[in-house]
Amino acid sequence: MKILIVEDEVSMQNSIRTYFEKSGYLCEIAATQKNAEEKIQLHHYDCVILDISLPDGNGLRILEQLKRKKVKTGVIILSAKNSIDDKVEGLNLGADDYLAKPFHFTELNARVTAIVRRLKFEGNNQIEIGNILFQLDAQKVFIAGKELILKKKEYELLLFFVSNTERLISKSSLAEHIWGDNSDRADSFDFLYSQIKNLRKRLNEYQSEYNIQAIYGLGYKFVQE
Amino acid sequence: MKLLNLTARYFLTLILLLLLAWCGVFYFSIQSIIYEEVDEYLTFHENEVIEEIKANPALLYEGSLHFSDFKIKKITAKEYEHFREKHPEGQFKDVKKFIAFEGEEESFRMKRSVFELNNTCYQLTSITTLMKLEDILYTILINSCIFAVLFFVLVTLLNRVILRKLWNPFYETMAKIKQYKLDKETTVVFNKTKISEFQELNQSIAALIHNNLAVYKNQKQFIENASHEMQTPVGIIQSKMELLMEDTAISRGQAVLVEEASEQIDRLTRLNKTLLLLSKIENNQFPENSQVNVTALIVKCCEYFNDLLEFKYISLNIVEQENVFLNMNADLAEILFANLIKNAINHNYASGYINVHIKATAFVISNTGQAIDFDPKLLFERFSKKSDNPQSNGLGLSIVKKICSLYNFNITYAYSSKEHTVSIIF
Questions:
Q1: A134 and A211 share a domain?
Q2: Which of A137, A146, B49, B306 is the most buried (most CB within 10 A)?
């Protein structure tokens, strides 16, 4: 799995690379538009993480070039502007997703995973991990063949865990994933605790091979038991 | 007090004083003219009498000359000399006489003089009536009053018509300044006026507004730019924090520190995002309006929070009028209603309730909850909320307020019988 990180901030490049290399991705970096275009010409990437505000131009031009190549490369746009125009234009130009800076790595990871999965397994949009099976189109979960009926938020939560298997997921990234911009709430954490508690109980009941593990006060990990 | 009335008041006081003085001057000048005329007449009359007597001394002894308006009496030579010495031109005197048939005293003017005829000295006393000075004064006062009334009417008319017309540019300027709101970012165009003072006033105000507007825009831009610039370093810190969290080698104690620092970074991130949103709304960066189906939007919003409502055992009751449409930006509409619903959940009791009313003209949301412990007027102000809740930055309602004022919605808050109610009149 090969990822191109187009990002001009060195500190940010390093962070993203370190994070994705831990997941076993092969990461390459481009700091300018020119550099990125050269790399795209020469190599094939499964996913491009694209910061659109670059010193030598708008990253959206890279997106246009990628689309002209007609290769299956997923693109996720990162933007510090959080402007709706950028989002609309990016998605219109064929980007697969859009994430506003600052973001949580778990969120970026989940989205990159989803993009790669969509491109790799066309028509068969499901995830299998241990004895858990996600049917993404139908939004159903089966554990050892038995369907696990979940509420909407519980489903989203479990999918987020699965997308970040074996990675630490901080409480705030969970809250933000579930509530988006509405995560600024006193009881969003309380709500999450209760949801997670419930999920763990049910995964146990269904004898899932993976379950949620609390890591100190930092957050959770979805790990094999 | 209005300037026009004040001018009128000073003007009238001045006129009244002038009139009084003028009455006095008029009275005395008339009096002196009358005396002059009467005295002239008496002198003329006296000369005629003396000449007549000198031509015909016999008249002195015939009583035919003894009319009521003059008398002749013999005097001694000594008295004659004395009188000539004292009054070479004759003696004038005011006298009062009781007139029987009028039943009152009348003023008379008298002249005494002496003459010599055939070595005998005589004193001649002539008398004539004097017009009543009181009558004259009375007439003058009446006339002055009529004059004053006329003057008053004239001044008032002058005020109403001319002054009002003259001051009109000033009132126009005032009306425009009253309506002006800096945050609407409009400029004011004043009508041209021929009066240089007002023209100067208008120019000064226009310049003032122009400068303030520039400062205001600059300020707004600064907030937006600052928030933008902060995104990158905050993002980098956050990313490093997450990498640190993943480090399996950190101890429990370190984990607590990392967790606490990370929480604060999240808070900073949210705060920054909210500030950015606020300044974007202020800088009018949500221009695309469309017909938003508010009913559908609110129902969708409530569904979004459904799990949370269940978790807090809050019952939600929606009374809706179907397909209420508003012409506004779709994103802002979502932010507006999501914020209000979120707020109603957040500041609610467990097992409380929320009532939502959607009408074509209004949106009303009320929820159970504890009374706020600060001035409700500050509710919609930035950072005014002294919340003990670290997850809340106190900006949610100020965003709501901003969006409402952008679309000229009227938003009000009330608390009664343990129920918070926020109403928006579209």
A1: yes
A2: B49
